[in-house]
Structure to design on (125 residues):
């Protein structure tokens, strides 16, 4: 279960950097300042959770747990729904996509809560 999460983490990191550069250079003249900031928020959260996903996957190598797998899956769902909805919202202008964003944010929160529980349950090394 670790390999897919590491691959997804690398993919999210790669695409996060690419999307950030795309926004800074390619979208700067195409989007309003407000929409550009929304797009960058998606990039920001994607990159943070790419790193979190790497950390969870590496932790799972040393202390496998169902909670860590759930946390990793929730981070993936969060990136897809939170960041993905922000990207689509800014690129299409379809405001109704914004109702998906909080679902992704809730997935992030649930993932962090699962990580908290997994850490709490760890035995001292």
């Amino acid at each position: 279960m670790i390999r897919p999460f590491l691959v997804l983490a690398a993919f999210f990191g790669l695409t996060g950097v690419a999307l950030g550069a795309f926004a800074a250079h390619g979208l700067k003249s195409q989007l309003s300042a407000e929409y550009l900031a929304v797009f960058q928020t998606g990039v920001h959260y994607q990159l943070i959770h790419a790193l979190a996903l790497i950390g969870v996957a590496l932790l799972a190598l040393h202390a496998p747990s169902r909670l860590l797998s759930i946390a990793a899956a929730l981070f993936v769902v969060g990136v897809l729904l939170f960041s993905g909805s922000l990207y689509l919202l800014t690129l299409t202008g379809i405001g109704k996509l914004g109702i998906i964003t909080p679902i992704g944010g809730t997935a992030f929160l649930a993932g962090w809560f699962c990580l908290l529980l997994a850490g709490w349950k760890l035995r001292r090394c």
Notes: The chain has one domain: 2-121.
